Amino acid sequence: MAFLLAGSSTRAAAVLRPAFRKANTAGKRSMSAGASVEEAEAEAEAWKKYSALFFGLVAVFSVKAASDHMAHHDHHDEDAPHYSHMRVRSKPYPWQCSDCNFIDPECYKKCKEGAE
């Protein structure tokens, strides 16, 4: 049994070697659709134009969305309801303005103005 396994790799190589030689000498591989090189280059140029067009459209709509967002950026916390479960402090925070949340610039301004 060991004799069959040891010789199997050399037999497989002998069988597959002519197939590999034929594949290597077959020449240039054609395009998948059988199109000529000129047609392929024309399609590539067309897709470059499509890509540039869509990049421009995405840029225009991105600028429009950003300008719309910046124009309507007047959100005030005064309009928000103040629920009883919000801003409940069991102990003060460990920073200078102990009643302010970690990232709350409006509260920090009020705290600094009140301290002066």
Automatic annotation (TrEMBL):
User: What would be one Pfam family of this protein?
Assistant: COX6A
**Gene Ontology molecular-function annotations:** enzyme regulator activity
Matching SUPFAM superfamilies, A to Z?
Answer: Mitochondrial cytochrome c oxidase subunit VIa (SSF81411)
Q: What is its main location?
A: mitochondrion
Sorted alphabetically, which Gene3D superfamilies does this protein's record hold? Cytochrome c oxidase, subunit VIa
Q: Where in the cell is it found?
A: Mitochondrion inner membrane
Task: Write out the GO biological process terms.
Answer: mitochondrial electron transport, cytochrome c to oxygen
Q: Which InterPro entries match?
A: Cyt_c_oxidase_su6a, Cyt_c_oxidase_su6a_sf
Of the GO CC terms on this record, one is: mitochondrial inner membrane
User: Keyword set for this entry?
Assistant: Membrane, Mitochondrion, Mitochondrion inner membrane, Transit peptide
Membership in a protein family = Belongs to the cytochrome c oxidase subunit 6A family.
Mind telling me what this protein is named?
A: Uncharacterized protein
